[in-house]
Amino acid sequence: MSHAPCRARTPAALASLALVLAACSPDTSDSAAPPDIVTLPPVLSVSQAAPEPIRASLIAMGTHDESVEVKVASGTDGVAVSVREIIIQPGVSTGRHCHHGQLISVIRRGELTHYADLHPGGERVYRAGESIIDGAGYVHEVRNTGTEDVVLTVTYMMPSGKPPTEMNLAECER
Questions:
Q1: What does pTM read for this prediction?
Q2: Is the pLDDT of residue 101 over 50?
Q3: Which of 23, 26, 109, 112, by CA, is between 20 and 30 Å from 5?
């Protein structure tokens, strides 16, 4: 197998590096952009065409009061990553379940109660602006105990081939 010389890959590598660096230094001088959208400066262009600006939208942001480690065992085809918006109506519960991987939830609106043995007293209330980091294997339940819909943005990192939510508790680690 032959490899192309390093210099043949330089324009693509520089464009990739510029994209990464541009993401670190937003240009907020574009007053026409809505406040929740950050317009980034143009990146290096390999072609002669004028570069398009890069726009990034903040979808959800929450805080977590502890350190976070993300580690997910791979399935036969690696790790599947998906992002979902979940809306839970008042009084509704997810039922007891677990996850085969890890997920990060940001509560965007409302208040929910997370029932799990890992919390003092077996439960913890989360409010808008907070985040939940769920690890693999432990059984838990989430209920909207408030009076308005709970809106969550959830990033799932699961071994490929595994469901995002496991309702068969026999499949959960103990």
A1: 0.65
A2: yes
A3: 23
Average pLDDT, the chain: 77
The dihedral formed by the CA atoms of 25, 26, 30 and 33, expressed in degrees to the nearest 10: 170
Nearest to 149 by CA among 95, 86, 97, 102: 86
Give the contacts of 56 (CB within 8 A, at least 6 positions apart): 23, 26, 37, 38, 40
CA distances from 2 to 5, 97 (A): 9, 50
Please choose, from the candidates 145, 158, 56, 157, the residue with its C-alpha nearest in 3D space to the C-alpha of residue 93: 145
12 has a pLDDT exceeding 90 = no
| Measured CA distances, 45 to 4, 13, 25, 32, 48 (Å) | 21, 11, 18, 24, 7
Q: Using 50, 70 and 90 to split pLDDT, how confident is the model at 67?
A: confident
- How many CB atoms lie under 10 A from the CB of residue 56? 13
